[in-house]
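Exercise 7. Predict the joint structure of the components listed below.
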Amino acid sequence: MKTKNNKNNFYKFYYLLLGGFLLTQVSYTLYQASFVVAHGRQQQNLKLHQAQLTYQKQKLEEKLAINTSLSMFTQKTGLVNYQAISQPLTIETSNSLAALN
Amino acid sequence: MVSKYSRSHSTLAKTPARNKIILIGIYLGLLTVLFRLFYWQIIKGSWLKSAALDQYERTLITQGQRGHIYTNDSHLLVGNTTRYHLVSYPYLLEKSPAEISQAILPLLLNDLEEYKESTDEAKKKELKTQLAVKIEQQLNKNDAKWVSLLPNLSEKTKIDLSALNIVGLDFEQNMIRLYPEASMAAHITGFVGKNEQGQPIGYFGIEGALNKELSGKKRKTTFSTDALGFSFLGLNSAKTSSTQGRDVTLTIQRDIQALVESALQKGLEQYGAKAGEVIIINPQTGEILALAAEPKFDQSTYNKFEQYLYKNPTLNNMFEPGSILKILTVASGIDSGVINPETKCTNCDKPRVIGKYTIRTWNDEYHPEINITNALAKSDNIAMIFVAEKMGSEIFKKYLEDFGIGEKLDIELSGDTDTPFPEKWGPVELATRSFGQGISTTSLQMIRAVATIANQGIMMQPQIIKKVQDPNEDEIIVYPKKVRQVISPETAQQVTEMMVNAAKSGEAQWTYSKTHSVAAKTGTSQIPAQKGGYQKDATIASFIGFAPPENPQFLMLVKLIEPQSSPWAAETAAPLWYKIAEKLFLSLNIPPDHQ
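Solution:
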């Protein structure tokens, strides 16, 4: 009778150990998977954010190029206010005392 | 009496047969499973694998943007912008096509170029009606899953349309080329069109020549998806490199290019010319600072222009250079040692008769015993024949070939190729070619040849690309490239001095710079007629020169086709040259050398 009880206890212990081991494995796998999913989502969000920033950058570059283009400059600036010069302006420098006064 | 043992015996006797049947059944079952496993895993294995991958893996193909084109001073010449294509799924519509059309029409008209440009109210009304009818027709196609309503919409229109919240309307995004400087440098940039498969492809200019470098790369990305098709494990692609095409920086400067284009347009109006070209190059490096040709096209609306306008005339159109070729004749004569600047022409006192042809000077004035320096200034045809005959056709031909006449430029522009070089060199041909008739070249070949003289006799390869930049890697800088030494530095120096004299005392002396020394030469050439001979009263006026003569910072060619105000270069191309040069002196910080 005692031998039978010992045998039952042994089986209980064996299945308990097996169950515990399996439970640990399943939990650990789920834990790992959650990281993979979270990482995937994070990566996806970052990619989306990067795409948005790239788009914004492109829009700003486009705006900058248009606003600094010569055609825009001509539109914004009243060129009638400027007088065309026929020859280069030269500034002569002198070290003489008279020139300094 | 049957004992318990006898029963047991009878049971034992029956068991083997039943067990056998059960065992056979089990074995047969296992064998069936084995066969099925073999069938599914070996025979159908690859199909199942791909079917499974199809279920939980998605492939995304992304096309990178086309590279940008910048000027040397870092201004964007060609970029990219987003446009939207309004589409509809008719089976999803909740409102009637008429209602939708009425709601979206005022917004769509903001992006209809023809409508915006028109000032005629009746035409505007007609365009509005046409668009409304088209939209309603498209929306009424109930059998279609997808219909196109209007492409090329701006972002503002897209936002305004989205705000209407009309179910069944959608937008497709696409990239098109952006030209912040409008049609500037159209012949250099070329344009982007579509190939037979509807894919964007560059044509002409830089877009055509560097299409592969500029094109965005395709990238295939695979990712795992859930039952609804959404990615849940992130992207599997390990690649993070950019798919964008390479950016190209040109050697042209925006301010000089704008100056040249504006001056050329005004010049064409002022002198009534049919067409014109201006090229400015740095002779010491071969870098092209500006290149303009008229008439030109607009890259963004290229399909509205005649196809012949797409070609770069400075690269593709051949012309007889006329008197500007005399610079090369004189340089060849001096370098070969048959003449020097002071050599006197011994047969310049009258027209020359060669075979059945009588050759005259351009003004029918003759200068006995004229030296070569003055002969160049007076553009004396007879003196040039004298020089060519002293050299002989073999030497003269070799020099012209060394100067690159007929030779491709090796420039990164679509359409660069060798041009025909004359093979027959009889006495008449030698005589006429000495003053630039009976031989054809292109403007870029001619400017490369004269740049050789400005650069101590060293020919530099004309260059339009400054650098090519990969989004991920280092930039590739294109350095100036020496082609060959054509004439000695001493000869180049002597010819330069002769050109200064020609500019000061030649036909165009009236327009000579008041502040800067210039080495230059006029050229008025006739245009060959289709039936042989030359067209009457039709000329090509050209003026080529560089400054400052002792350390040239720029070399410019101005060419006007069939000017009406005067056929002579001295009265058309030369004043235009000086008008541009005056501004170049300021722009390139070239100090005056005389007052």
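Discussion. The domain at 82-178 of chain B is CATH 3.30.70 (Alpha-Beta Plaits).
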